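Could you please review the protein record set out just below?
***
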Amino acid sequence: MENQRIDLLHTLQSSLRNTLNTFGCTSEQYAKMKAYVDIEMAKISQQQAMDPSVSDKQRKEVERPIIMDLAFRPKTQPGHPKTTPE
C-alpha cells in the first residue's frame, strides 16, 4: 500500500511539472495540481510518522525531489520555418 502511494505521488509530481510547463506557474490548473500534490505528500508523511515499520529508505523516497524533467519543445507556428535539418 505504501509503495502505491509513493508511485501515485511520483505520477502526480510528473503531472505537476507538465502542468507548470503547459500553463505556467500563475495558472489555476497549476495551483490546483500543486495543492493536490501537497495534500498527498502530507498524507504520506503523516502515515510514515505513525508507522514504525516504514524504512528510512521509504521515508527518503518521499522527501527526495524528483530531478528529472521532460524536455520542452514549443509547437511550430504556421508560417514559420521548421528547424529540422534538410
Summary: The chain has a mean pLDDT of 73. Residues 16 and 35 are 10 Å apart (CA to CA).
